[in-house]
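REVIEWER CHECKLIST
Item 1: Sequence provided? yes
Item 2: Single chain? yes
Item 3: Sequence as submitted:
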Amino acid sequence: MSIHRPPRISDLAAGALAVWFALLGFAGSAIADETCQSPYLPKITGQEDFVYVWTLGIEGVGDGSDKLVTVGANPARSDYGKVASSLSVGGRHEAHHGGFTDDRRQLWLGGLADSVIYIFDVATDPSKPKLVKTIDDFVEKSGGVVGPHTFYALPGRMLISGLSNSNDMGGKTGMVEYNNGGEYIRTIWMPEGAVYGYDVRVKKELNRMLTSSFTGYNNYMRKLSDLLGDAEAMKNFGNTMVVWDYHTRKPLQTLEVPGAPLEIRWALDPDHHYAFTSTALTSKLWGIFRKDDGTFEAVELADIGDPAKIPLPVDISLSADDRFLFVDSFMDGMLRVFDVSEPRKAHVVYEKKIGGQVNMVSQSWDGKRLYFTASLLANWDGTAGSDPQFLKAYNWNGVELTPAFEVDFLAEKLGRPHIMNFGQMDFYKGRVARVSLNP
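Item 4: Structure as written out by the authors:
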């Protein structure tokens, strides 16, 4: 499949555009409140009003369907710590990840099981998102990409990483681009020698993009206990990260990062030219550092817990000042906070058990609040013997966490809470609709 290079904005036009955005209220570094989000999103700098939780349905629990659950997060509102709204999409699709378009007006959410994508309007009434479009031909349009994972906002576009393919349901996969209207643009296949996919993140100051690697449909849809006991299946995990030229979408380097590197977090300071990831199977924290010649190197930084016990590191979140890296591990339900102010000397400064298991972590832009959810994959939850399903909110003072509120998703008959995104009631007042541009 041929891949054409999109037109680039000239330096002069890009400068004019930056001024125009600033006048419209999209000023600053345009980094989102959730510090792991795309640099092309406008940010929420104050108190978030809502946490949007993409939730897996459980047969016999409530309506049994996947749903978008909106939870109040502002202590000044009457819905604080409560379910403000819930919207089911019908059926169970292995609800997993999602993300906003570059104007934050739409939230795209995907299912790993059948590759259906749901687009919600969160701008009209942020307290009650509305389903406005369903994309059910993702596999067909993309040429066989299966399992939409990361949804990453680009100017006027959504970049979606895949986990698998429709040919053999293995790990070979690619990335798929849509415009903000939900129309397919192109597929970018992972390069030979690094065919696995998972996360994708952009460092716009360097014109560099990083991708990581996980496993294919045949593995992630199995019971984790069965998978861990299958020696052949355990060979089918990614061990690489790819450095790309962001504008041309061309691979430049393949880095060896053994053990299935998952979430990627670029440093947020424009002058910090490095990123972090964790490896699920080997329980290591890694740094990806730019060298003097412009190339990158992968460096093992630290253990995450006891690797022999397979704590299974999952999500990570970097504070806006690039000082703290919050690392969740699924099997032991632990949060470990690393001081990464000297990134090559990362070390643990705080630990806390969040629950019997824990998966996602999101933090506010000001660094004062962190949120955690419990579910990883429907067939992997409960592997360690405990299967709680919660959204937990904490306050962070730079030294320790203190509980704020908790929503028990099983008691509320909602299901398994997975990824989180933030909303704010007055965010869209005075803002214009999206401006579609090629990145």
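Item 5: Key structural point noted by reviewer: The longest strand covers residues 145-154.
Item 6: Recommendation: ____
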